[in-house]
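[SOLVED] Need 3D model of a two-part complex

Original post:
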Amino acid sequence: PEAPLFALEINPEKAREEFRAASQKNGGTGVKDFMDGMGLGVLAEQLGELKLGELLDTPPPGLDEAIAISKVMQFLEAQEYSMFRRIVFDTAPTGHTLRLLSLPDFLDASIGKILKLRSKIASATSAIKSVFGQEVQQQDAANKLEQLRERMVQVRELFRDTESTEFIIVTIPTVMAISESARLHSSLRNESVPVKRLIVNQILPPSSSDCKFCAIKRKDQTRALDMIRNDPELMGLNLIQAPLVDMEIRGVPALKFLGDIVWK
Amino acid sequence: MADGGGDGAMPDPTVRNLLEQESLKWVFVGGKGGVGKTTCSSILSILLASARQSVLVISTDPAHNLSDAFQQRFTKFPTLVRGFNNLYAMEIDPKVENDDFANEGMEGFLSELTNAIPGVDEAMSFAEMLKLVQTMDYSVVVFDTAPTGHTLRLLQFPATLEKGLEKMMALKNKFGGLLNQATRLFGLGDELNEDAMLGRLEGMKDVIEQVNRQFKDPDLTTFVCVCIPEFLSLYETERLVQELAKFEIDAHNIIINQVLFDEEAVESKLLKARIKMQQKYIDQFHMLYDDFNITKLPLLPEEVCGVQALQNFSRHFLTPYKAALKRGTVEEVEQRVSLLKSALQEAESELDRLRKGKQVA
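Solution:
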């Protein structure tokens, strides 16, 4: 059955432009609303003169992961995405994947801190304003942060739901790559992320006429595969072997070809 | 970008130019995941240790493969590599230390705000590490970096931080008095030492400014791009080189790893096909980067892991790899004839068996 297949590539540059456009459209209303909520609206206006937005010209590391999280949230909420039976994330290499998976926790804690700071400062400024007989409360920005925090909890739970989510580790048959995969699995286990399968890519296929190079390479790869079978972190996973083929795997027909081998 | 070989000189098919550039202080090694960055940065640091007084190799990739490459456990503090007296290694811990931003008063405020932004903790750790390394006075520092996209952000961060600190100082100048009043009202007057905090910020700003200038100086800093002869890696290398140019960071060395050479040991049809495929992209690399020094490293049948293997493999960084037997030489043709004779004998035996089988039928 030829089910429809869609693809999406996250573009941090584009997301940044969208963010800046949104900020300008509201005239910085978001930040101003938030600071108004703390009684610091005048300060926000003066801060605008410093052009802090320039800092966005060089976004910090981790932006890709943050955007990926926002996409996950979009999938959870938007009706237009409910048509997808399966969603596959092609994640960044190991280190950043771990950051991606821990980001909901991080953001949850971060938003908590921001809200706490807000309360602290708001109560102080309220004390000041009370002297002048003024009392204003602005809850919109804070409410939005609370909503965001709740969504973070949802995403975190989604990443650890054994019924609907699986993390598939992909590696190549070398000692270094398998060591890295073992560390990855250990971290995922600590995060309670479900992992069932390990794909080992670029395996030399069996051949009746081995050349000297292939014979040595095959022996080296076998040593790596044995390492998997003996590793306490990896031995429990279902092992799938993907062969090294003579043509380049690019384009849909080639991808289908290799896919039929791996996912049979 | 500077011509590695000097004016008019042909590009160098090795990394010797990096060893000969005595002014070099920062070397970044980066590329797509899975192309062999860590092997290359490990070997570069070994080679530099033979040419320079002291070398530090740092892994900024959260996956930390440096310990695997050297088969020695490294931490976030420089550790002497076994077998060397002037080569040190460390792996950066993404968790930022609270040393400089003790969690109290306004400093706690800054710390909490800093940690509230995804990725900034790691970038701050990078900045702290730069400050630390500056005071340790290594001749040259080699960075085994995270895969491409992330590396570009980290490299740019000193400039970002410099701008951020400028904003902070402007903020102080503008709101200094108000800030004092506010902190007193918040009940932080006794805890907050504004001058000490700002002093630390200014100190960090000075270090970051210095490092930022050094990163843009081709005499002091260069980026070595590691790739493999495949389409995705070529595409990503081009993206990396473009971004580095935008950041004004020098790049004039490319290492093409995992190259299959047409030699005696490589006879299978599968590998022959892959050689042909790789050659297409190697040609494109040479066309696109005709003024870069391009080093081609052979794909070995066995993994390069551990100091001894790294040392052995390092010769390919200094001398272009020669196939075991050149096509067309007497020895090579004799060997080919010998192989063909064996194959012929095998085929004849098979034919005899088939004929006998046919007669019986």
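Edit: The radius of gyration of chain B is 27 Å.
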